Amino acid sequence: MAIEPNQKIQRALENVLEFPDTIDVHFQPLVGFDSKRIIGAESLLRVSVDDELVPPGELVEAAMAAGHERDLGRAVLNEVCRRKSEWPDGLLATVNVAPNELNAPNFASDSKAIMERWDVDPTEVVFEVTEDWVTPDDQLIENMQQVLKIGSEIALDDFGTGYSSLSHLRSLPLTAVKLDRTFVERVDQPGPDAEIARSIIHMSHALGHRVVAEGVETVEQYRALESFGCDRWQGYLCSPAVDPDSFAGLVETYNIATLSSRLRINDVADDEGDVTEALDSFVFRRTSSTRWAHVGGRNQGEGWAGIIEVDEDEAPILDDALNQGLVRADWPTPRWLLGPYHPCSAAVVALDGDTVVLFGSTEPDILPDLDHEEWLGHGSRLAADIGSVSPAKMLADELEQAEALQAMMSGSSMTIGTTMRHVADTVATALSCEFGVVYLETLDEIVTTTATPRVFDLELIKAELRTLRSELVAQKCVQDSEAEALPLTVAGQDFDVRSWLAIPTAPAFGGIIVCAHTSRNPRGFTTLCQRLGGRLAEAANLILETAAEREALHTQALRANAEARRDPLTGLANRLAWDEALNSCGDRNATAVIIDLDGLKNANDLLGHAAGDRLLVGMANALERASRSSDTVARIGGDEFGVLLYDAPKRAGNEFVERALSAALSEIEFSHGVAQRAEGETVRETVHRADTAMYKNKRFRQVLKTASSQSP
Hints:
4 domains, disordered N terminus
């Protein structure tokens, strides 16, 4: 008799929970775009019933429905760590977790204990949470922060498929984003999927997150993602998920040569005979006697078509190519060559006096060994296929600028501090920068991008920014920091600045925006990025001034509000503030003390109001010295004061009176009443009892004074 699907899943869950050792895990290799090597693997649950595989997603959903997701998660993590303990050091293991599991108390400490059991370094474990399942709340965010504190990473899986993708990217403490395979399928084809993938990668980098592409199956998908700056990938182009023993064999044999052979880089030719297809290529055409524009190309050159313009005096490589015909460059690490391009290897060939083609790669020693005529042939064929920049590309670039400006203006309802952070993040995201800072000299306020740890000396960097701002006449773009270093001390960051842009903004505040590309993704600023930076700075000026005005009005309102609740003579709270304190007390435990200053009228009549004011101020000072900062002390009438002692012990009221007596000037005398709030009593009823006790104390003191004056 066949088992119903629900019964099969239930049986599988019961078996796993009762016998955790029966869990099987397969691993799909994770490959680095930079190293071209396997750097880890995603662990995928494999559970069978009667030799039939149970869909992992359905098993997890069944565990969640039964409240066993944490038990299942512990069992999976334990098996992954057991297997990982057999791997070479340095390989990452990613583990999928359900949000309810990640939201569980002690998730981080429990997970760390499992890792320690198998001697697994927490920094080599990545927890993946699916975007559609995430509902951010304080507990989830706190648990995620605890995971980061133990050293592990958190990746948002299937990014771009949910309804709140951008919100999650901004609000969750992540280290990585996984680009959903639905965007990867057509990433090598012109259209929205490629543009969305490019935008997600650039935006994630600006926020300090790595990007992993899943479902990479073709050479063309790989090349497109590489040109966009993606960090890691997984998919059938490398390998499907395999059993642990097979994965160990892949790690030993898969290297840069394996991948290079699959990508046909450095091969003699592919079927079409073009050995330059995998390279970045740029076609530059002369637009004036000294000005050149990039009109199209392949890979990175395709994405930057129409948005790079250079002068010959800013690009000596062009002049060299025109004079020599062909110029080659090879460096072990990326360096600036032309415009925003920072390759390791490049060949620049002049087709004639008006057209130059650049071939390059961000990988060292990757260019094919061709002579001048062969490079000339490849460059001529490429240039022949490229006319002018397409209207669709120009429209996409305009839309990108419009979206960035719209994003900037969305920060118009914030305080000055959050507006500055919004400006820094928006500029860095729009220009795909890894580092950004905004400084307003007259307010002496500085913020960095959210993804940038503030480990540098703020006072030092403020002084450096003041100097840089004073030297700026207009915005300044430096494409090669080796020629002119960024004049900011950002020691302690895990990057080197490769290019930087400084833009004056908010002249009323002496403002400046500085953003930079770093060694994490070495590149410079396209002409479009430079123009967009200037437009964003103009928009920032408006929202910064609006925020400053709003904050000034808010400060004035707060000051007026405080003055309306402050007694002008004594500086204590007045009757309005006293009544508000009574109304807001709620069910809180409180002790009420009512003080009546004796002899005020006599002092005013005999010595003048200045003497009476001196007594009132002295009484107020004594009460403030005797109270705590959390208590309410108010002048509630001419010579009457009220005190509310919150959450105080039983004798607190009498002890307060004794402290006030000790603190008061010798000429000050007062009557007092104390009442502690009783169960079921309103605080106003408590105050009334204290007021009654004060009058009783006042009459008693008068009787004593009368008796004392009549005694012989």
